[in-house]
Amino acid sequence: MTLATDQQSTDQQSTDQQSTDQQSAGQQSASGPNVDPQPAQDPGLDEQLAAERAHLDGSRTALRRMRERAEALFATGAQVAGDPFAAETLGRTLSRRVAELADDPTTPLFFGRLDFGQADPDHAGRRYHIGRRHVTDEIGEPLVLDWRAPVSRSFYRASVRDPQGVATRRRFGFANGVLTSFEDEHLDRGEELGTTSRILTAEIERPRVGPMRDIVATIQPEQDELVRAELAESICVQGAPGTGKTAVGLHRAAYLLYLHRERLRRSGVLIIGPNRAFLSYIAAVLPALGEVEVEQSTVEDLVARVPVRAVDDPATAALKHDPRLAEVLCRALWGYVRKPEEPIVLSDGSFRWRIGADALRRVVDEARREGLPYGTGRERVRARVVGLLQQQVEARRAESPSDTWLRRTGRSRPVAGFLDEVWPAVTPEGLLHSLFSDPALLADAAGDLLTAEEQALLLWAKPARTPKATKWTAADAVLIDEAAGLVERPASFGHVVVDEAQDLSPMQCRAIARRSEHGSITLLGDLAQGTAPWAARDWRDSLAHLGKPDAAVVPLTVGFRVPAAVVAFANRLLPALAVDVPPAESLRRDGALDIRTVTELTAATVAEVRAALAHDGSIAVIAADDAVDGLRAALTDAGITTATVDDVEAGARVTVVPATLVKGLEYDHVIVAEPAAIVAAEPRGLHRLYVVLTRAVSRLAVLHRDPLPDPLT
Ligand SMILES: Nc1ncnc2c1ncn2[C@@H]1O[C@H](COP(=O)(O)OP(=O)(O)OP(=O)(O)O)[C@@H](O)[C@H]1O
């Protein structure tokens, strides 16, 4: 094993509180079991470090040249394109290319190197630097290979047992974009660091500041297998807190975009997260990997056809998220289609055209059999009716009617009136408004599916007069989206990544299924963290509602965030959570756990925050939602600036976070104020507490005046 560090920059860095990569690397360098104890004294290593820095400088210059070329093309693109559409398309492509080639001086251009052995049939004796994107020199020779390129796979997967032709794998340590160290594994000599790599350790232990970062430099083999799964493959990842599910999902999106760029650009990639705070936390990861065109949304935003202005009581909300409602809506909608009883008669100048009721019944039956969405079916019937009239005109006049005639006839009063009678236009909002206002209509659609009590839960006591005047709830919005999907199918994304998926209701799963019908999904979650009333208990159910019943459920079991002592404490809750999840093992042996009974909670919290400020990194005070304002005010009174959870770029190091918004986030130092209140605030309060206790990267302090919830004691 070889390790080199630049001693001078290590010394410099150790006085710099922010520069953590190097600091940790420096501290680790002499202590790891597989590490050369006096690395920097080896002159050969110093020369190698200098050569690597020269390669980095050369690569940066080359990237700048590539970007300048793209910018020049962008500037002239509009003039050379033949027409406005081509100009716009070209302009978009080029501006994206310019954005992709952006060079962030604080992010290393490469983080690894592969030296292939002489015996490798494809890359004998070749050396590749692996980085965030391809960089080529002026004659097109690669200076840095994209981490997603086929060759780069060996960087993540090669091992002593299966070296894949690799003789040496080198990992680089950086501080603020400056290359400061490297670490070699000579696989051909049986050397392998695995999770003891000090560069991996430094990355995991670095204090967290600001938004989430990519993990390209240290993706682990079990993660890489998921990241590089085929586009057609849908996968469900069950992983304990901090096992890298979010990281895997985002890197898989980047990988698929690289491999299937054109296809996915047309259909799109969608990332779904639990709330906007979470989305802003992860928003920087894909752009850092050069992917600037990925849509991100919460499920609520995905189905936001109507404004949400009311709240359901819990029983009604639970019922509205029940998959039986899908069938109720389907029946209610198709219940509008009637059997034609009257002929269509159309006067056209001196002619009269007529289609009998039997022929019309056949048209309607046929359109129904085709299984089209309701709205498409209505237009199909209109087109067929016009077609039948056209045939009569052609037979009588021996010439085809004009397009104008066909269009006018389709909109004529007899044809439109017929359609309104047998296949009326229905809006999704209108359908739901009628269904929840009219007991007879609801009973017709739901008679054998919902009990009388359930139907009563859905019916409004005082219906608004119109759909527009209705105060819709969040669950109504999901139902309206379901109805909209029956009227007209939404476009399908090529790939959808769903994070914190354990909280999706069956009806929310269906909303996502409609948007991934022709694509694949990556479902990420942890059954133990399910806090919604309808949270999943078995991934198979969620996958069935998502339309991907055969997707594999793959566990991730190595924890990168939460220190072992904190995991052990949080895991005391697991038996009470009634879920069957594989246990996870923490990679982090460091970290601190402090559980304290206090007499004055607010004062103790302020004191704890003050103490935490002496350390590096972010600090979160997590409390029951209704306690947040009071704690924030107390901190402000004490002269401590606090940020809100949705402001990830905020300068303040302290964030006061309501327990219901902390899912998916992480902070170096977490202070949990009164766990019993968090548990008492909602039916799945213990699950919520499990989420809260697993947010800490380095230190967890639990302050309580009331007794701790039973499972924790
Ligand atoms: N291979 C890795 N190398 C370095 N850091 C990693 C690796 N995998 C995950 N991490 C880090 O571990 C932390 C937790 O990752 P992530 O948020 O993806 O976990 P998660 O499973 O989604 O957690 P949760 O269940 O709480 O949502 C992040 O800081 C992430 O960058």
Structure commentary:
By secondary structure, this protein is of the alpha/beta class. Strand 18, helix 25 and strand 19 (585-586) form a beta-alpha-beta unit. Helix 22 runs parallel beside helix 23 (506-514).
Topology (elements, then pairings):
Layout: E1 2-5, H1 7-14, H2 20-29, H3 43-80, H4 84-100, E2 110-116, E3 127-131, E4 135-136, E5 142-146, H5 153-157, E6 166-175, E7 178-186, H6 198-205, H7 221-227, E8 235-239, H8 245-259, H9 261-267, E9 269-273, H10 276-282, H11 285-288, E10 295-298, H12 299-302, E11 308-310, H13 314-320, H14 324-334, E12 344-348, E13 351-355, H15 357-369, H16 374-397, H17 403-411, H18 413-422, H19 428-437, H20 439-446, H21 452-458, E14 472-473, H22 474-487, E15 495-498, H23 506-514, E16 520-525, H24 539-545, E17 552-556, E18 558-559, H25 564-571, E19 585-586, E20 592-597, H26 601-612, E21 619-623, H27 628-637, E22 642-643, E23 654-658, E24 667-673, H28 675-680, H29 685-693, E25 696-704
Parallel strand pairs: 3-5, 8-16, 8-17, 9-10, 9-15, 11-14, 15-16, 18-19, 20-25, 21-23, 21-24, 22-23, 24-25
Antiparallel strand pairs: 1-7, 2-3, 2-6, 4-5, 6-7, 12-13
Bound molecules: adenosine-5'-triphosphate (ATP).
Adenosine-5'-triphosphate binds next to helix 6 and helix 8.
Secondary structural class: alpha/beta
Portion of residues in beta strands equals: 15-25%
Please tell me what the overall shape is: globular
Note the total helix count.
Answer: 29
Would you identify the regions where 5 or more consecutive residues have pLDDT less than 50?
Answer: 7-41
Q: What ligands are attached or bound here?
A: adenosine-5'-triphosphate
Roughly what is the average pLDDT, rounded to an integer? 89
Instruction: For the largest sheet, list the strands in their spatial order.
Output: 1-7-6-2-3-5-4
Radius of gyration: 31 Å
In total, the number of strands is 25
N→C terminal distance: 45 Å
Largest sheet: 7 strands, mixed
